[in-house]
Amino acid sequence: MRRLLLFSLVTLGLTVLTPSTSVGAAADVHPEWGHTAAHGATIVKGCRGYTYTYALTPPDGYWALETFLIGPHGKQYGSGYFLTGSDPLAGPGSWRLCARSTRPGTYTIRARLTVDNVVESYDGWLPETTFRLRHRRR
Fold it and tell me: What kind of fold does domain 2-20+29-135 have according to CATH?
């Protein structure tokens, strides 16, 4: 449990210290580690959760998955965090978006996986997922 807590704190510290430009940086992409998925949706009045899924096959060790929702023109709309011991290797996530601040267009999910097995640490990106959000037709 202490090792998991230490890994969580170190990963969180690295996340905080990593510049926001790293979200869009071209780093190592590892499709063999997993993927994310999302369906297109309609932006509705008010605020609601827009779901996505993730599925991982990480190297052995303690893992942490960070997800970032990037909207049109590169604006970051949200993020998520999943961790060994508290989250399964595959499952749902969601972002709460409000119609007043959400623009229609193509959105991208970027996901960064960090794994630590005490001997080695791995860090890389999953393949990007794109989907469209559109306004309700009147």
Answer: Immunoglobulin-like (2.60.40)
d(CA 65, CA 56): 9
15-55 residue pLDDT tens: 444 434 344 444 699 999 999 999 999 999 999 999 999 99
- The residues spanned by each domain of the chain are 2-20+29-135
State the SS3 of the chain.
Answer: CHHHHHHHHHHHHHHHHCCHHHHHCCCCECHHHEEEECCCEEECCCEEEEEEEEEECCCCCEEEEEEEEECHHHCEEEEEEEECCCCCCEEEEEEEEEHHHCCCEEEEEEEEEEEECCCCEEEEECCCEEEEEEECCC
Overall pTM > 0.85: no
